[in-house]
Structures are given as structure tokens and as C-alpha cells.
Amino acid sequence: SLQATVKVSALQGLNIQGSYTYQRQWGPGWAYDSNYYFLYNRSAGEGYSNTLPRSQITLTETYEIPFGKGRKFGSNVNKALDFALGGWTASGITSYYSGFGFSPTLENYGATNTQPNTGPNNRPDKGSTDPMSGAAGNRSQWFVGGVGSAFLFPASNTFGNYPINTLFGPRFIQQDLTLSKSFALTEKLSFLLRTDATNVLNHTNLGLPNSDVQSSSAGQITALAGGATMRKLQFS
Fold this sequence. Notes:
Low-confidence stretches: none
Distance between the termini: 40 Å
Shape: elongated
Oligomer: single chain
Mean pLDDT: 92
Strand order of the largest sheet: 1-2-5-6-11-12-13
Radius of gyration: 26 Å
Largest sheet: 7 strands, antiparallel
């Protein structure tokens, strides 16, 4: 993995801290019949992990809007205007990660080839085309399914060789935002007004597609990514 951090402090009321991670995890047991591969043929079962995204970015932002008492602009405005417009603070968290890896699967070996009774018998052979090429690239068709081009039937009583977790699902992007203001009623008494928005841009973060290449719905996505939510607002 490669990890990098950037930090911006007190830039006209703006504070940002960001981190970037590039990571890969390689080993046996990430897809298909991992027990078989572990016991009998570890090298054939080696591939990339499907538990980590390759790239991940996290930004935290805090911005004290420079207007109102004690701030750069409007420090001498009257109490009524300061009460309404002064002292606001915006903060947020930006989350991004690239798609998680997944592996294509088979239901059977077709009408002419014999499927092994045990072991990783749902792994296709690698064909000559890219399953992402020509796909709509959305929830209706993330990749092109079917057998005969990108995916092939293995020979009878053999196991497939499609590289493990080398297809990638949709990326995840989410911006959370908080807007808050402290109202000073007296020197000792104040109250805080706060709005929290989860996924404020209401971006749809899709989950992984149907990986069964023989299914009529191969490549379709019917669920959100893990941890994803549509926009939610909370007032306090």
C-alpha cells in the first residue's frame, strides 16, 4: 500500500485534512472454492482480494464562514444582523473509493462439457474480449455477460482460469455536510442550531453486479453498496 496525507490549517477559516491510500492485497482463497485451492492447488486459487478498494480518498473539511462577531468581516454589525448571519460554520466529510473487485461465475459447463462434481466448478475460462467493452456501464448492464467471447466454458472435468477479482464494480462517492451556528443570548447562555446531511448530493452508490455470466440478468445491479444511503437530513 501507499499512504499519503495532506493538511491545511487556518487558511482564512478553512481547515482540511485529507488522506489517500493505494492498496493491493494478493493471496489464495479470495474466490470460488477456496477450501479446494487451499488444500490441493494454492497457486491456481491466487488472486487479488475483494475486501479492499484499490484507491481510497477521505477529506475532512471545516470552514468558519468569515462573517460576524469575532470574524474577519462584519465584526461590528448590529446584534440583529449578527444573530441572523454571523457565526456560521460548515463542515463535511468527503469519501471516495474505487470499485471492489469481483469474479465472474458459471452455472454449468454447457451442453457438451462435463462439469466436475467437486472443487471450483463455477469458474469460467478467460476469453479474448474485455467484458467491460461495449457494456452500458450502469445498473442495467455493468458488464457484458454470456459465454463465447469474454467468458468460455472450461474443458470437461477441468477448472476455469479466469483471473480472480479482476473485474471491478462501481466507485463510491459521498459528501456529508454539517451547517451549524451558535446563537449567543447572553454572555453565559447560548444555543446551537445544526443541520446534518448524509450524502447531501444524493449520489447513488451502486453495489456489485450479478456475476453469473449465464444469467439473463448478468451484469445488472439491484442494490446499493454496503454502507451507502440516499440523502438523509437531521435538524437539531
